[in-house]
Amino acid sequence: MRKPFIAFVTVAIFLCAEYVSAAIHPVKIFSDHMVLQREIPVPIWGKGDVGKVVTVQFAGQSVKTMADPTGHWKVWLKPMKANSTGRELKISSGEDTALIRDVLVGEVWFSGGQSNMGYTVRGMARRLPEGKALADAADFNGIRYRKVNEKNSPTPQADLTGGNWLVCTPKTVLGISGVGFVYARRLHLELKVPVGIIDCSWGGTPIEPYIPAEAFTGHPTLERLVALAKVGDVEAIKKMRGGTFVRSPAWLAGAIYNGRIAPVAPYAIRGAIWYQAESNCGTGEDPRDYAHKMRALINGWRSVWNRPDLPFYYVQLPQWRSYAWTYAREEQRRAMNVKNTGMAVTVDLDFHNDIHPPNKIDVGERLARWPLAKVYSRKIHFSGPLYRTVTIKPGAIHVAFDYVNEGLMIGIAGVGKVTELKDGTLNGFEVADKAGAWHAAKAVIQGKGVVVRSDAVKEPVALRYACHPQATKDRPWNLYNKAGLPASPFCSDWSKMPYDQARNPISR
User: Fold this and answer.
1) First to last CA, the chain
2) What's the pLDDT tens digit per position in 305-344?
3) Which of 343, 374, 405 is the C-terminal boundary of a domain?
């Protein structure tokens, strides 16, 4: 029986997106306060009565379709300009109507990862004065956030089970992803348009469950992972190259994708951001081939969104005491060879052995630089120095970098800033001798490169920078470009740094 209209209005005020009738259902990613993507076609879809005409009306557009034999329907709105005034989206079929209110048009980004992506503004506000200041001032009607909390599933799901879009206020922001909020805030302030974040992050999870099952192709590790997931052989997954601990069915290949991502795609988005890898390089876990997993994730998401050029930007792991993190960071750096990607470096931000470093301000700001430059054509520096080549000469190694911009500098990071140390000393550089032993080295900035020497090595064969789980407090990794963006860790010859599983043994 159809609910009375007056009753619907009363409930909708408090619960958002209650519908006039049960006969017409947009999928649940569509609700009050949502943001629709500007400047590209926007799909709207759901379920209704078989064979009935469905009409979707928004922003002067009226589009009709017919529910198919299974009751499913989908329409496409033509590209729209950004709009900060909340409007009503109306979906009707016969006498049945669904109303979605306060809909904005702007930029929408999909975010994923584990607990550091999910780490809330509340956590930042409790631990950082700068975080509290951001939270107290977070009155942004033009920033909207949608958390997707669905359980895992063995098969792709057609819809979410619930949830709502939130308008960003000093109260609601406390439960929002810190990285997501800072990222959205920077885009909103720079672009002057609404920004929506859809966040599917899940604490403690590896990368595999976020990848569509069909994307586990093109590399033996990927193919073996999905084969073992199908039969639930978690012990074999643990022991294989690139293996991880599967602590529940949610950790199996494709399981989170099925529950949290499949129901959202193809909701129109500009791109995706990602912060994860901790659970692929913990105790006993093997970070090798993580770059292939990232390639599968990126290409898999691009496939389900039917966007082969979908921008994808991610965060490189910070410091932590685990042996495997050194290798995970390198795998993340290698993933940049996938087109239209970018990486925010964070190894300079924390020295407290904190698996959840509270400074998500600089993480979000550095991450936002990539789309501002690459997607929105802002003239802004977006990357710190990335290793390009070395030239080995008797007694010295000359290093060249990409993204040097106006030059290199020695710096020290604080929350929200990097200060140049005019008389500082570069830390973190080491050279390898012919026997493969590594030795601390002296490094100086020369022009737009770095020259490295070691009194202990007259004939060096390789060079590395910041290739340890963490720096010491008295010798922080401190190479930056003049924009204040840090250099990524690198090694010129990874054959001189073979991964040793014995140093990260399986103990569970």
Assistant:
1) 55
2) 999 999 999 999 999 999 999 999 999 999 999 999 999 9
3) 374
- Residue 381 in any domain: the answer is no
Same domain? For 186 and 315 the reply is yes
Under 8 Å between Cβ of 477 and 426:
no
Whole-prediction pTM: 0.94
User: Residues 6 or more apart from 129 whose CB is under 8 A from it?
Assistant: none
Residue 472 lies in a domain: yes
Q: Flag whether pLDDT at 22 surpasses 70.
A: no
Pairing mode of beta strands 195-199, 140-147: parallel
User: Residue range 267-279: average pLDDT?
Assistant: 98
Instruction: Answer yes or no: are the C-beta atoms of 201 and 117 closer than 8 Å.
Output: yes
Nearest one of 258, 256, 262 to 276, comparing CA atoms: 256
Same domain, 199 and 308: yes
Q: Are residues 153 and 227 in the same domain?
A: yes
Place of tokens 């795998």: 331
Q: What is the pLDDT of residues 333-391, one digit of tens each?
A: 999 999 999 999 999 997 677 899 999 999 999 999 999 999 999 999 999 999 999 99
Q: Confirm if 144 and 195 have CB atoms less than 8 A apart.
A: yes
Res 507: pLDDT: 60
If we measure between CA atoms, which residue out of 373, 397, 396 comes closest to residue 383?
A: 373
- Domains in the chain, number: 3
- Do residues 52 and 100 share a domain? yes
Tell me the mean pLDDT in the region 487-496.
98
How far from 193 is each of 80, 184, 375, 429, CA to CA, in Å? 13, 10, 14, 43
**167-183 pLDDT tens trace:** 999 999 999 999 999 99
46 token code pair:
């759901």
H or E element that contains 87: strand 83-93
Residues 93, 171 share a domain? no
Supply the angle between the helices 129-136 and 178-191 in degrees, to the nearest 10.
Answer: 60
Tell which residue, 49, 16, 20, 12, has the closest CA to residue 30: 16
139 and 94 within one domain: no
In angstroms, the CA 350 to CA 353 distance is 8
What is the domain-level CATH number for residue 339?
3.40.50.1110
368 and 390 co-located in one domain: no
Share of the chain above pLDDT 70, in %: 95
| Both tokens assigned to 173 | 């922001």
CA distance 120 to 115: 9
Whether 280 and 206 have beta carbons less than 8 Å apart is answered as yes
In a domain, 158, yes or no: yes
The last residue of one of the domains, among 319, 353, 374, is: 374
Give the domain CATH number at 20.
2.60.40.10
Q: What is the pLDDT of residue 248?
A: 94
Per-residue confidence band for 73, with pLDDT thresholds at 50, 70 and 90: very high
Domain with 471, as residue range(s), is 386-501
Q: Are residues 450 and 306 in the same domain?
A: no
